[in-house]
Amino acid sequence: PAAMLSLLSAHRGPAAVAMRTLCSHSAARQADAIYWNDKHDSNESRFEKILIANRGEIACRVINSCKRLGIKSVAVHSEIDASSKFVQLADEAVCIGPAPTSKSYLNMEAILQAVKQTGAQAVHPGYGFLSENTVFAKRLEDLDVVFLGPNSKAIRAMGDKIESKRIANKAKVNCIPGFDGEVKDADEAVKIANEIGYPVMIKASAGGGGKGMRIAWNDKQAREGYRLSQEEAKSSFGDDRMLIEKFIDKPRHIEVQVLCDRHGNALYLNERECSIQRRNQKVIEEAPSVYIDPDTRKAMGAQATALAKAVGYDSAGTVEFLVDSKKNFYFLEMNTRLQVEHPITECITGVDIVHQMIRVGKGHPLLLTQKDIGVKGWAVECRVYAEDPYKAFGLPSIGRLTTYSEPTALENVRCDSGIQEGSEISIYYDPMICKLVTYGKDRQSALNTMVNALDNYVIRGVTHNIPLLRDIVTENRFVSGNITTNYLPEVYPDGFRGKQFSDRDRLNIAAVSAVVFAKNDLRNKTYLKKDRSNIVAGEAKKSFDWDIVASLDGKDLLCRVSYKEGGFTVAFEGSETLQIKDNFSLANKVIPAVINGDSVCMQMMSRSFDERVTLQYMGTKCTTIVRTARAYDLSKFMPVRSDKDTSTTIKAPMPGLVKSIGVTVGQTVAEGQEICVLEAMKMQNSLSCAIAGKVKAVHFKAGETVNEEDVIVELEPLA
C-alpha cells in the first residue's frame, strides 16, 4: 500500500483519490497490526499539521505515522529531491533550496519560513541535520511551534560530553572508570587497578602508536606492565608519566531506548545490539541483544531512565553503553533524537515511537507503564547502502535505481526506505537505500527471514552492500552471537572478498547458468509458439540436449544438459547429476531454482552476447562463461587480452568532490605520496600514488566533482 500511495500521489482525479484512500486504509490496518501495544486515548487532542525537517526514509517514516493518526504532513525538500518518495507521500511540500545540505536541510531560515508559510503546529526533525540543534529548537519555541524532540536544555547537556558524564556520575550511572593523574610507582598502580577493577590499561601519558601500553588482568601483570610501560615510554617519548584506566574487554555496543514525557514518567523499551560496525557506523542491529540477560537489561534500563530524569528529558532518546566480557556496562553518550534503528524496538514492543513522540509533544502523559514493555520475539535490521562492500567494507556509490523491488511480499519483513525505482542516489546525501527489518519468534527465525529477504531484494543501477550483509547473517560467529565492535576486522582481516563458495555452490551456479544458456537456445529456436525444428523434422521434438562447458572461478566444467517437459538434467562429467525444475523464465529477476528438490534462490543479473551469465547467489555476483563444447575448443585459439597497467593513473574509487590537489604538472612524486583528497558523502579519502614518477597531467581541480573511475592525475614513471 505505501508503494502504491507513492505512485498515486502525483495523480489527480476521482479514481486516483479513491485508490489513494483505499491504499491509505490498507496501510493503516497494517500499521495497527504492527503497533499492537501503542497505548493512547483515541479522544485526546492532536496536532492538525506537522512539518518534517528531514528527507528520505525517516521523513517517510514520520509521514506514515501522521497518515495513520489523521494528521496532515508537510515535507521540506531540496531542489534535487523534488520528485522523491517522501515529497510525494506528504500532503504539502515546500522547496527550501539547492542540493547542498548547507543550503537546504541545514538552512534554518528557509525551514522556519516553511513553518510559517504552511501553518505547521509542530516540527519533527528526524535524525541528523537539525535534530540536535538547540538554536533550532529555541527558534521554534519562539514561534510557538512544538519541536518534537527533547527540550533544548536536555539537548545541550547531553551534547556536551564532559557535562553529560558529570550528570551521569551524579545520577549513579556507570561510567568508564579511570585514574588520569600521575601514577607514582608499581605499588600505587596495583592499588588503583584494584579500585578500578581488572582488566586495566596501563599507558603512558605521552604515549602513542601502541608504545608504552600494557593490559593487566591481575596484580602481577599490573606490576610488570607498569615497569615495562614506564621504561618504554621514557625511551620512546622522554616522558615516563603513567596513567591507568579501565580496559573494556571484547566491547559490545549496546544501547537502551528510553521514552519520557513532561509529567515525570520515564520508560525503557529494552536494548538494541549495535556491535556490527564499520568506521564507527552501524551496519546490522538487533533487538534484543543475545548477550543481555533479564537482570542486566533491568539494570541498564534503570540507569538509562535515571539519566533521562536527571536531565529532565521529555521525548524519545537513546542511551548508549559499552559492555565488556563480564557484562559490566559503561555509559558512552546519549542521543537526544529518534535513532535510525528504532524499528527493531517497535517490532519487539509493539510501540509506535514516532506516535509517542507526537503525543508527548502535544503535552499528553505516557499511558504505557514499564510493566507494559516486554520482549516479544526478535528483530534484526540490515542497513542496505549504496556502497561497494569490497572497498573498506563500503565506499559510497551513486547512480539511478534502474530496477528496484523490495522483498515486502515475504512475511515478517519491514522495509523503511525513502526511494523507489527510478530514484537517484546522489553525492549530496547519505547513501542509505533501505532499513531492511525482519521479525521472528526467536533470533534464528528472524535471521532465516533476513537471509530470504536479502536473496529476494532486487537492486540494479547502483553498487550495494547486500553481499556483505548476506555473508554476515550466515557467518558462524555472528549466528552464535559471539560479536564485538571489532567483528568486521577480526572476521575479515583482509577485507571483504565476497562469499567463499564451496564446490557444491559452484556446481549449483554452473548448473543454473547452463540451464539459462539452454533456455535461451530453446527460445531462439521458437517463434509464434512453434518449434522451428517442426519444419525440418515434420514433428515436434519433446527433448533437447546440449554439450556445454561452464567456466567458473578458473575451472572448466564439462556437462550435458538435457531438457524434457518440466525440467532440465545437468550431468557433470566425472561428478554429479543435478535435476533442475523448469519454473522460471529468462525475464525473471529472481530465480527460485529447485535443484534436486532443494530450493535455491538466485538472481539473474545479466546475460551478455559473449556467453557470459552473471548470477547473484548468496548475495555475491558470479559470472560463468557458458559455451558449447565446440565453441570452447575454438576459444583456445583466441588471443588473450592483457591487463592494462593502472599504476600510472590515480582514479576516483567512488563519485565525489575533489577537496584538494597536492601536485602540479611536472612535479616529481614519491611512491605512496598523497596526490589528492576526495570527499564523498561526508567522508574524506586520501588518494596516493602506487609508483614514483613525474606528474604528466592533472585533469581536475579542487571543487570539481568526479565519477567513479575518472582519472584525476596521470604520472610518468621515472627513468
From TrEMBL:
Coiled-coil segments: none
GO biological process: lipid metabolic process
A GO term, aspect molecular function: ATP binding
Localization of this protein: Mitochondrion matrix
InterPro entries: ATP-grasp (IPR011761), ATP_grasp_subdomain_1 (IPR013815), BC-like_N (IPR005481), Biotin_carboxylase_complex (IPR050856), Biotin_carboxylation_dom (IPR011764), Biotin_COase_C (IPR005482), Biotin_lipoyl (IPR000089), CPAse_ATP-bd (IPR005479)
GO cellular component term, pick one: mitochondrial matrix
Catalytic activity: butanoyl-CoA + hydrogencarbonate + ATP = (2S)-ethylmalonyl-CoA + ADP + phosphate + H(+)
Stretches assigned to the Biotin carboxylation domain: 46-493
Transmembrane segments: none
Cofactor: biotin
Residue span(s) of domain Lipoyl-binding: 640-716
Sequence ranges assigned to domain ATP-grasp in this UniProt record: 165-362
Keywords, sorted A to Z: ATP-binding, Biotin, Ligase, Lipid metabolism, Mitochondrion, Nucleotide-binding, Transit peptide
Name of the protein in question: Propionyl-CoA carboxylase alpha chain, mitochondrial
UniProt source species: Macrostomum lignano
